[in-house]
Amino acid sequence: MPAGSRSHPIEYPQSRDDLQQWLCDHLHVPPHVQPAVFGAIDSVFTRHRQLWEAAKDDALQALVAAFVYRIANLQRQLSEKDAAAARLSQHFEQLVAELTDKSRRDPKTNLINFPRFTEQLETFLAVEQRSRWCAVGLADIARLKSYNDRFGHAVGDRIIGRVARLLQEQVRSGDLVARKPDRTAVTELHSRFGGDEFCFLVPRLAGPEMAFDIAERFRRAVERYDWAIEDRRLTEPVRIDVGVVGLQPGRVAERRFIARRLAADLIKRADELMYRAKGDPVSHIRFERRRIRRGDIVRMPARARPRDSHAPGC
Question: What angle do CA 50, 52, 56 make, to 5 degrees?
Fold first, then answer.
């Protein structure tokens, strides 16, 4: 029966060794020819394996490239969405900050309002440790009602606005104010206190006399300003009355938990001094030195005057 019949099917080799034996059994390859034949077969198998591996690598690289492209595309889309969300979030944060800031400012002068000023004064008294001296003052525009009655409220508002700017220029001097870089720093030093009144805080003074110097410089700036620029009918100087307290804060431990009461007492005392200044036709300033002792703001007697102080009105 011929080879390959149904009764005796041919069993093909499954490995190189099986192939070598099969060739020897079926083709009767002479021994001296076998190495060449088997070498040629190995060469063909190796080439086919290389081609198959290369095709597999190409297919894998194409698959990876497509995957990387899709991932990059998704990342770009996510980045665009994140950027849009970040811009929107930033816009709303800025809007909230602006609305919050506007709610804390006086619309006529753009100074912080009195509640905000009080908060910052309380914070200053609760945490400040570097100030040897500081100043808290109140200023009042003398006879503002008469300006309103004679020239109208528009002129009165211009006077208020100009006094506010002069206050900013004179009180927030770089040589008198040192700002802390942290969040507890007192960055706003003056406020509109009432219809024609302002208050200010100057931290870190070298001595109490500097508090008086600030008030005097502010008063002179207002009186020497050319008020005809605001309205030609303002032919006489506008005057202000100032009450200022030069405070020696002392240790922060003595005031940290009573800062609110101390702030209220300081403002009340500066207010009293301001009204006393209205009766002084010459200087229009009342000044005194105070310190914190056993939780109270007390006046410093003359014998307690520090060596570096020569301020008047102590």
Answer: 115
